Task: inverse folding
């Protein structure tokens, strides 16, 4: 079993910055990638950014140039640095942990609200 815990969400003004963190834990599980997704009210969950175990990052066009995904020194931890935040970035952000099979383990999500 894999436990996934997100942290770092909150309320921020437009143009502000926020950093989310995702920590995965669990025995005998080899991680192939970690990703961030978001779901706004009334919308489908969408991929924001992903990072493979060998360091290949993928950023959605909607956040490219504003968001950065990176691996942290702590084992199995990635962060999502979000800058120049816009009201349309408001959503629940979920971290996904991928193995080498089809399963994805999800965290419970962390709320990000961009509002003045």
Result:
């Amino acid at each position: 079993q894999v436990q996934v815990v997100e942290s770092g969400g909150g309320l921020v003004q437009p143009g502000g910055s926020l950093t989310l963190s995702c920590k995965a834990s669990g025995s005998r599980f080899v991680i192939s990638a970690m990703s961030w997704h978001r779901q706004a009210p009334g919308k489908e969950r969408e991929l924001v950014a992903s990072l493979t175990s060998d360091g290949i990052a993928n950023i959605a066009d909607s956040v490219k140039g504003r968001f950065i995904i990176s691996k942290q020194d702590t084992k199995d931890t990635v962060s999502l640095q979000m800058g120049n935040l816009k009201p349309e970035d408001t959503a629940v952000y979920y971290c996904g942990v991928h193995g080498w099979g089809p399963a994805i383990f999800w965290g419970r999500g962390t709320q990000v609200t961009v509002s003045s």
The chain has a mean pLDDT of 94. Residues 98 and 104 are 5 Å apart (CA to CA). The longest strand covers residues 18-25.
